[in-house]
Every structure is written in C-alpha cells, then in structure tokens.
Amino acid sequence: MDKKGPRKIVTEAVKIGTYGNTKWHLQLECGHSLDTQRKPKINETRISCKACLNPVSNEVATVPIGLADEVDPLSELKIRAAIASYFNVQIEQVDFAWGTATVFLDAQQVKRISSQ
User: Is the model's pLDDT at 36 over the cut of 80?
Assistant: First the structure.
C-alpha cells in the first residue's frame, strides 16, 4: 500500500521552466520540497509530504557551477530549485559554498542517476 506523508503548508514557490513546459518548485513548512504543475496559494495550500517518511542518507556528489561570489537570496533559491529539479531531489539536498553546488544524494538516487 502506498503511504501518503503528513500534509504540510506551502511556504514558498518558484516557477521553473519556459512557456509550455513549466512547473512549480514548492518549499514546505517541514523543510522538504517538491515539484508540481499547479500554482499553490502560499501559506494556505497543504500538500502531502512523502519525504517526511524517508530520511536522506549521507551520500554526496559535488557539481561545480559558475556562481558569482554574492548571489541575492531569490536568485539563490531559483538556482537551488533548478538544480534540485534537474537531479530530481529535494531542494534541501542542494547546498552552495565557494562557487560550487553540492547535491546530497541517497543510495537510490545515486543508482538512478548513474543508470541514465
């Protein structure tokens, strides 16, 4: 039986993509994130969070990217959301430091990405 996670309030939403191929990257009150096709109402919409049921392990993959030394918070959130969407991971699994992005992956995510 497929379990649904606890329903959490959407605290932030970032639109990703181009016309005709867009999605919303949502940040939930629990700290997890997910992608959806529908625009949510911030601080009103509640969404089931399956990530609350599955903790992330400590496998690490580092991907260098060219970031400026100073990035405003909204730009950083959009970049983190785009990277999380690309690797199909939660936004909290993406971290920035010294012009690089680090994506923290669990064993299943490493296997999924390496088999593509």
Answer: yes
End-to-end CA distance of the chain: 28
Phi-psi region of 18 (alpha: psi -120 to 50; beta: other; left: phi over 0): beta
Domain positions in the chain are 7-114
Q: Report yes or no: 47 and 34 within 8 Å, Cβ to Cβ.
A: yes
Tell me: the pLDDT tens digits for 76-97?
Answer: 778 888 888 887 788 888 887 6
The tally of CA atoms less than 13 A away on the side-chain side of residue 5 is: 17
Secondary structure, 3-state, the chain: CCCCCCEEEEEEEEEEEECCEEEEEEEECCCCEEEECCCCCCCCCEEECHHHHCCCCCEEEEEECCCCCCCCHHHHHHHHHHHHHHHCCCHHHEEEECCEEEEEECHHHHHHHHCC
